[in-house]
Amino acid sequence: MRISKIAWGEFLHTLFLEAPTGILLFIIWELFKENPDTQLIWSMVIAMTVMFVVQLWVARKVMANSYGVIYTIASRLRIQLGDHLQKLSLGFYKKRDPGDLASVVLQDVNNFEHIFVHTVQSIFSSIIGTLILSIFLFILDWKLALILLAAIPIAFLFVYIATLVAEKFSEKHIASRNETSSRFIEYIQGIRHLKAFNQTGIKFSILEKAFNDLRKNSIAVEVIPGPFIITGFVFFELFFLLMIYIGIGRIAEATITTPTIIAFLIVGYRLYQPLKLLMIDYALLRYMNVSMVRIVELLKAPLQDIGKDITPKNYNIEFKNVTFSYVDRVILNNMSFIIPEKGLTALVGASGSGKTTIANLIARFWDVEKGEVKIGGENVKDMAPQTVYSLISEVFQDVSLFDDTIYNNIKIGNPNATKEEILKVAEKAQVLEFLDMLSDGINTKVGEAGSHLSGGQKQRISIARAMLKDAPIVLLDEATASLDPENEIYIQQAIQELVKEKTVVVIAHKLQTIRNADKIIVLENGNVSEVGKHNHLIKNNGLYARYWNTQQNISGWKLKSN
């Protein structure tokens, strides 16, 4: 409804914008009379002035309405994309570059805004303006008008060719733009390591190549279609000159009047101005069509099964004949085991054995290919993802914090929590221990990804967030693995508070920390190698015992002096 109002408003704006040209024709006609009516001429000038003022008022209204509507639509589209992205399986993100996804939400939606705010309105105005001027010219002399209009299909044939070329190169341009964005993010995130190995600036060849490709494709998408559009412009000029030539000949034959020729010289040349803008905008429209295709493709990406709002009877976790692969590599191979409720179960194994994959399948970040993952006897694929998420808290080594205050980062665990509840979990998670060192205490901004805080401080905030959520299942990717001894003590104390009366799954790296686990599951090559408690597994003298003995030997290592 609002779009139709914008269309009508744009029609009125164009009508009042072009109508003075028609009045100008009548003024010219009057001036060529033997006794021109000056009062009539001044009346027409006043009418032109009024129309000019009215078109300014209409233009302001149309711009305000159209900008408001289009930017609202674009804002909702970004929210829709964000909502859609959070409903996708993490397997989708394994196949897509983060820079490419960010480009869809930011750059491609921005192109969509530009289409409707500028290009579509300009195209609409150009079509209406050309139609109005054509009617004026047909009224004056239909033969000369046809000569001018004959240039349009020829010119737009070249525009069509230009759009085909532009569409081909625009795909390359967008791909190189996304590649540059991804490589620049990679460059910033790894700047510390690049500095350490003296690979910054032009020495970082991957980023340099991305920028060079973007430069080449940016030039190509602008320059290569250009000659076709310019050729279309040339045909406009040629047909305008042809109209003048034929018009002058008809004056000599006395089949047309001088005022009519003058009118064609003034209005006829103006006829092509909106068409030239239309040609440029049409080519741009086809370029932006690539962005629209990318937005639609993202919105069509398959969601996880919706499932039902099923509440499990308990919080036992069972893997039953589970098989899962990343692309073409099998990670879990027909795996079966049970994680008991309200106990601590540790997952042990070499890198790539499937520990993190198991945690992600429990949380339903991915769905299994074969078999079942059950919580309380309910298949997680039958449960709504939001229901599964509500049952699980996680604390991993790589903490994700948002560029907000410590208070708000903790509150993410439970947006409805009171201030007292947030301060209580902050105390239990040892967050209050370091607040005195910060300028604004718990209201201190943590910076992007928590860049203003140390690893231990970020970890404690993550644990406080998990405490506030108070979910019955806790997934831990051993949070103390990379911390200094002092911070490790604080984090261990916080974790002890977090896991009370919970079903806890620990991805273990330091075997010393899981000696008292209720159950230890040892993984090897996507299979369960051993299951038991620490003492039992040591006596079994299998893979776990080898890991244990290796870590005990490594713990006493030292550097030799020269």
Spell out the key features of this protein.
63% helix; six-stranded mixed β-sheet; alpha/beta; elongated; 562 residues; single chain; four-stranded antiparallel β-sheet; ABC transporter transmembrane region fold; Rossmann fold; 18 helices
Characterization of the model:
The chain is an alpha/beta fold. It has 2 domains: 2-299, ABC transporter transmembrane region fold (Up-down Bundle), CATH 1.20.1560.10; 317-554, Rossmann fold (3-Layer(aba) Sandwich), CATH 3.40.50. Helix content is 63%, strand content 11%. It is built from 18 helices and 10 strands. It has a 6-stranded mixed sheet with strand order 6-7-8-3-9-10, with helices on both faces. Strand 1 (317-326) and strand 2 form a beta hairpin. The longest helix has 49 residues, at 38-86. The protein is elongated. The mean pLDDT is 80.
Strand content: 5-15%
Structural class: alpha/beta
Strand neighbour order, sheet with most strands: 6-7-8-3-9-10
CATH topology of the largest domain: ABC transporter transmembrane region fold
Order of helices and strands: HHHHHHHHHEEEHEEHEHHHHEHEEEHH
How many distinct helices? 18
Q: What's the CATH class label of the largest domain? A: Mainly Alpha
Q: Give me the count of strands.
A: 10
CATH homologous group name of the largest domain: ABC transporter type 1, transmembrane domain
In angstroms, what separates the terminal alpha carbons?
83 Å
Q: Mean pLDDT, nearest integer? A: 80
**Quick one: biggest sheet?**
6 strands, mixed
Low-confidence stretches: none
Could you say what the CATH architecture of the largest domain is?
A: Up-down Bundle
Overall tally of structural domains: 2
- Radius of gyration over alpha carbons? 35 Å
Shape: elongated
Helix fraction by DSSP (H/I, runs of at least 4): 55-70%
